[in-house]
Design a protein that fits this description.
Blueprint: H1 13-17, H2 19-23, H3 33-36, H4 38-45, H5 50-64, H6 67-72, H7 76-83, H8 86-95, H9 100-112, E1 119-120, E2 122-123, H10 130-143, H11 149-167, E3 173-180, E4 187-191, E5 196-208, H12 211-214, E6 220-227, E7 231-234, E8 248-262
Antiparallel strand pairs: 1-2, 3-6, 4-5, 5-8, 6-8, 7-8
Helix pairs in contact: 8-9, 9-10, 9-11
């Protein structure tokens, strides 16, 4: 995985990418987001209900990025802008992580965290290969359709981190599951034992909280101890009327120590 010289958070990319970081995680803060939107996070801290906090975020995004104005306008371009808010990109990822929406989300990880994708429709071994250029084209197409999508995702990440702190105040990790058929999207760095591997995950990945559900997506299940600070989004944090997912968790990648469970 290529790491960039610069990012927009409080740890260097090479540190976040390492398995040592996963063993001893530290909070990741996107530069300036909490300060710029301190009013939002102060209000959220006073709201007891998870559903009400989610609605507060939705309303804040709606006003801050003028989604309500697009909704009232009748022009085709305005309707496209509305459809391509952060919710559209999350829905697009859940449908196909290698879509244009997926490229935009991988692009957020690349620009904010400093980790470049290793897979987008095809493996991306270097930043000079054709696969990386196609990813950049998809990323630019998607980002051009909406209003400050990276800024929207900055707020979303910080919101999710606050929610995880409310839900799991004494935890740093969660065990999550990913169904796979092979290692096409994941480079094996080391086989540590019969079923344990050190692998290179893509810069953004789909996991689930449900072990049994993971089997629906492959003949093997990858079991990973994921730092909460590497969770970009968890589908059950939003009301089902806004976003539906399959117990999905979107995880920032790097080097991960995983166990592989084989079906049959």
């Amino acid at each position: 995985m290529a790491v960039l010289a610069l990012n927009r958070c409080n740890h260097p990319p090479w540190a976040i990418a390492s398995y040592h970081f996963n063993r001893e995680p530290k909070p990741i803060e996107i530069s300036g987001v909490r300060h710029a939107h301190h009013g939002l996070f102060e209000r959220l801290s006073r709201i007891v209900s998870m559903e009400d906090r989610a609605q507060q975020l939705y309303d804040y995004m709606d006003v801050t990025f003028q989604l309500h104005q697009w909704q009232r306008e009748e022009t085709r371009s305005s309707q496209k802008s509305l459809k391509n808010s952060y919710l559209r990109f999350l829905r697009g990822w859940m449908f196909d992580s290698n879509s244009i929406e997926g490229a935009v989300l991988k692009g957020w990880v690349e620009s904010r965290i400093g980790l470049s994708p290793t897979f987008h429709n095809v493996p991306i071994p270097t930043l000079e290969c054709e696969g990386y250029l196609q990813y950049l084209k998809d990323r630019m197409k998607g980002a051009a359709r909406t209003n400050a999508i990276n800024d929207q995702l900055d707020i979303l990440y910080e919101y999710v981190q606050a929610e995880l702190a409310y839900r799991f105040p004494e935890q740093q990790w969660r065990t999550l599951y990913r169904g796979i058929n092979d290692f096409e999207e994941h480079q094996i760095l080391e086989q540590q034992s019969k079923r344990r591997y050190l692998i290179q995950l893509n810069n953004l990945n789909s996991f689930t909280t449900d072990f049994e559900r993971a089997w629906e997506f492959g003949s093997r299940v990858m079991v990973a101890k994921v730092p909460l600070c590497k969770v970009l989004f968890q589908s059950d944090m939003f009301p089902s009327s806004l976003l539906k997912g399959e117990d999905e968790v979107m995880v920032i990648g790097g080097q991960f120590e995983v166990e592989i469970q084989i079906g049959g």
